[in-house]
Amino acid sequence: MGFEITVIIPTYNVAKYIGEALNSVLNQTFKGNVEILLIDDCSTDETPSILEDYKNNHPDRAITVLHQETNARQGTARNRGLGIAQGKYVFFLDGDDTIDPNTFEKMIEKAEGSQCDFVMCDWVYAYEDRKLMYVNYDRFLTNEYLEAEYCERLLEAATYFTVNKLYNREFLLKHGITYGEGYIYEDYEFYVEVAQRAEKIGIVSNPFYHVRVNEDSTTKKDRKTTIHIDSLVKAVEATITKFDPRWEQSYYHLYKYIVKKTMNYIRERAPMGQKRKTIKKVLTILNRKRTDYYVPRDVVPLFYFYFRRKYVQNSKINQLILIDDLHHKGQLTPLFRKAMKAKETMLKNKTISKLNQKRLIAKKNNELQRYEELSIKENVILFLGFDYRYIGNSKYFFDYMMNRADSTHELYFVTTSNEVPSKYRVTPRSLKFYKILNQAKFVIGESWIPLDFKKKDGQEWIQLWHGTPFKKLFFDSHEPFITTFNKNHKRDKQRDISRWDYLLADSPKAKEKFTTAFAYLEDRILNIGYPRVQWLKDNRNNQKLIKELKQSMDIPEHKKVILYVPTWRDYNYKKSVLDLDYTLDISRMQQLLGEDYVFINKDHSMGRNQLKNPNVITPPNTLEVQNLILLADVIISDYSSIVFDGLAIDKPFYLFINDFDKYEKARGVYVDMARDLGDFCVTTEEELAEKIVKEDVWLDHLMRLKEGYVTEGDVNSNELLLEKLTRTNLVNF
Q: InterPro entries of this UniProt entry (predicted)?
């Protein structure tokens, strides 16, 4: 039997975690043949017996257990596995880590489709309470692929992991790439070798590899001996000996990584008296290889001193220790800024103004600190709205709660909108807001929640989100345009995600996508439908309201209404002049359709596409988009989730997409959804007009699509959400 993948797992005293690691491999969605090689490195706990039990309890799986005769460390164990592996691809997994169920399926799909030497996925830290923390900001992750010399961009990484990669075994064998043996930091040379030998690397943007935060790890023990610094020197020597880069920046990035790690390790893992000796040994190895390498001009203060001032190249050990100490204490950057930019003498009135400002800030901070000591009130619900706006799911669930005669909840909505009655309205970031934030049992958001809002123990944070994604969302996309401008984008957003207790979904398909997009636990996603969609269902036959809405916009009753709602484009991010070639030519559509139709143009909240056409209705910003869906006869969009809202009440829709290739590079769409929606897609105005007139892709198509894209059953989303809020265990509802 041929194997597509060989998983190599070295183990040493991981009895507490190995079961979870193995389960994560056994529960992969990938249906191909997988070989699992377990190499135990003389564990002294129950690890060996657990491995044997797994092998015996899963006779249908290709599990091989090997026992090392002596403890030779992970590198030796991995090399032994690599030597007998039979899979076309090899994946290394540490015995205390886990992988997402989609890992192999997504990675081998990219590997096979593009003939990569290896494919890497992103990674995330995993804690004992199942919480994940994303800290990565490697900029090369915005790429789909790295090719030729730019494969060495892997050397830019803040952490050199070899375990989050699916390697073509022939690639490793061809170049004789193996791990170092007999010391701890055995993966340095392996990591650098695969980077400098690869011709093509595929990148999966999802953080499928979960690195357990394990204080018992072999790389955190034995701090009273020289084992760490001795291993470090051996690893650096072995790595530099084989280092033969193609890219001009590779020396800088590798040396930067090694020096920074050296300074960290001697501070945290080396015994007294070894600091200067170790730095000298490492610098000697580096500088013996080369000192005249490229150094970027725009670098952070730490690396400015290390490399532009040439403390590394000139082996200035005392200066390196001083700079590292200042950096570790958080003092280097402020001192650097003061030195680089002399402050002008402040005018007296400015000084007084600043003093007054400081007093006001101090007073507010004292108030906030007092609020943090307040107890949580079980009946208080705080709505943050959609970025403080009174719209969407937040609005409709709030309205439902507010209008309940038997409600015992104390409700608040954070907004400046006068549509919210004053008794419920809270000004964003006011003292009243912070007081209620600290008292609320439930905090309900519908978009990203600012990180400076502190979550208290005992609170439940519910994320309503704002739609079923057709366009790839967050971790499912490389998001190159956004991440290029903000390297901490994904790290900060994941910190927010880690605070969500539950996430609302509107369909089975949405739940499926949210799981990977947010790296979120499936059992924490509540697939009970959206309050905004519930409003549409409740009002689908409300002819009185529909008539009033048409009259408010001077739309003749006999005319058919076409709602055009394009979504925002990533490739316009931070651009002063927008690329609007993707927009529908409504004037042309009016010519093709005649006078029986009227167009409403509703741009995305982040867009600036105001059509200057007297025959096109631009609704006021105060009019909720759900009202427009309700009165529309046909909806035209592109990548927006709004079409799925309309689908719930059988509104026909079409997707006008003429920038697919450009959008795919900027964000991308879900391939399976693009396949499902294929009958609804058009690329020209002529094709679109023809479908509208012929009523092509009508009820039969809509009914088939509803199976996976609409909440099933005769349910009331508001009632279910309220019921879940009043239960102590939402997951087991």
A: Glycerophosphate_synth, Glyco_trans_2-like, Nucleotide-diphossugar_trans, TagF_C, TagF_N, Teichoic_Acid_Biosynth
- Other CB atoms within a 10 A radius of the CB of residue 197 amount to 19
Secondary structure E strands in 579-685: 597-601, 616-617, 634-637, 653-656, 681-682
- Specify the CATH number of the domain 533-706: 3.40.50.12580
* Pair 213, 129: CB distance under 8 Å: no
Nearest in space to 26 (alpha carbons), one of 4, 54, 45, 52:
54
According to the CATH classification, is domain 5-218 in 1.10.10.10?
A: no
646 within 8 A of 635, measured Cβ to Cβ: yes
pLDDT attached to residue 345: 45
Q: How far apart are CA 287 and CA 397, in angstroms?
A: 64
In degrees to the nearest 10, what's the CA dihedral of 492, 494, 500, 502? Answer: 150
Q: How far apart are CA 457 and CA 367, in angstroms?
A: 20
125 contacts 215 by C-beta, under 8 angstroms:
no
Q: How far apart are CA 491 and CA 136, in angstroms?
A: 6
Note the pLDDT of residue 347: 43
Which residues of the chain have a pLDDT value below 70? 1, 215-223, 340-364, 604-614, 696-698, 728-733
Residue 282 CA to residue 417 CA, distance in Å, equals 61
Contact in structure between 40 and 66 (CB atoms under 8 Å): yes
Question: What are 156's two structure tokens?
Answer: 């830019």
Both tokens of 55, joined, read: 């092998």
Read off the pLDDT of residues 157-211 as tens digits, 9 standing for 90 and up.
Answer: 999 999 999 999 999 999 999 999 999 999 999 999 999 999 999 999 999 999 9
| E strand residue ranges, 55-164 | 62-67, 89-92, 98-99, 118-126, 132-133, 145-147
Contact in structure between 71 and 11 (CB atoms under 8 Å): no
Task: Give me the helices (H) in 269-385, please.
Answer: 275-289, 301-303, 317-328, 332-340, 348-371
* Antiparallel, parallel or unpaired: β 165-168 and 118-126: antiparallel
Q: Tell the burial category of 601 from Cβ atoms under 10 Å away from its Cβ (0-12, 13-18, 19+).
A: buried
Q: Return the pLDDT at 604.
A: 64
Number of other CB atoms surrounding residue 218 within 10 Å: 17
Residue reference for tokens 């969609």: 533
What tokens were used for 222?
């034995």
CATH superfamily of 359-529: CDP-glycerol glycerophosphotransferase, N-terminal domain (3.40.50.11820)
